[in-house]
Amino acid sequence: MSRINNRRAVASLILGRMIYAVNWYNFAAVFTLIARDMNQNVSGLGLAVASFYFGVALFQIPGGLLAAKIGPKKTATYGTILASAAAMLTSVATNFPQLLLLRFLVGTGMAFVFAPGLILMARYFRERAEGFSVGLFQAAFYLGGAFGIFAWAVLADAWGWRESLAISGGIGILTALLMFLLLPGDPIREDFAMEVREIRKILASRWLLLLGIGMFGVDGITSLITSFMVFYLQNSQHANAVLAGGVGALALIAPLISSPLFGVLHDRTRNPAWLMFLCGAVAIAGLELTSLHSVTAAILANLVVGFANGGALTAGFSAARELVHGEYETLAVSCINSTGLFAGFFFPPLFSWTVLSFGYPTAWMLSGFYLLPFITAVLLSKAKSFANHTS
User: Fold this and answer.
1) What CATH number does residue 371 fall under?
2) What is the CB-side half-sphere exposure of residue 315 using CA atoms within 13 A?
3) pTM (predicted TM-score)
4) Domain residues for 141?
5) Which of 346, 347, 350, 381 has a Cα at 20 to 30 A from 368?
């Protein structure tokens, strides 16, 4: 705890990150009940996941630019309010197109939260502990996501999916209030003005592009394993809500260990390219285990994928944050996050189509082959460290 400069601020960010993750993942956990009410199948889940990821990916860079202009605290707070309000409104949707629109808005709000929150988290830690701060921030996300998958699968089964989503949305609004009260004000420079040349330099960075491509592969794995696992277990393996939710949560429990661990490794090795590649390759192997089509295989796959993805994302985000300093560091993180999250827009519909055409085992197996080239691309940097490379 001696690494922390402002414990109240860090506590509010961790709590906000956890509830953010609940509203990210709980929709997939309750989708079995939504599908019954609205006559949907796995293709409907694929569309809902794609709609959400489209919003969260599309507005990453605008979120980074807004944070540079008005500050990360205000940007993260406003985004949390939008995402939480949309999650709450999902509970009163009367048809599936409304659900798709609201999931898009949840994603849009969340796009304004992640990069500003990560930058704030690093700001409240001492020097040379920034990688650990990123790992801790990610661990909070995974803890909230695991809770969201398991608890909301059970809660929705007992109370109903509408009631469960209304609760998570309301809690999200309360966390926005805590962030507003506990985070210090943004230190905005009066003489700061957006410079198109600097923005273009960041957006055209080869190093950020390579990181983003690697993130595309990692986020593709994450979007499939966390979005479809509960539905797959309930509908294909005939698991009950408790078992399906518990297995699905494992993919977000394992990173609780790997995220801080790889944050420390990044601080010591400064070699994010190889860290990302090794973790991504292990995640691909874990994803392939799911094609064995059993509950046991699903348990192992969730543990392996979760642990590996926690390490890969922590290494990638830590590297991006170090590429650019000052007001534009949020934009650098937003760039790779935007590229990565678009995987959640492309791959879930493809996965749904493959399931309907060939079945779950084939869909899980082919997904690993689709995603491996993106994981490998990060090694094209041929650099021991991304630091000091901004063009």
Assistant:
1) 1.20.1250.20
2) 32
3) 0.82
4) 7-183+193-381
5) 381
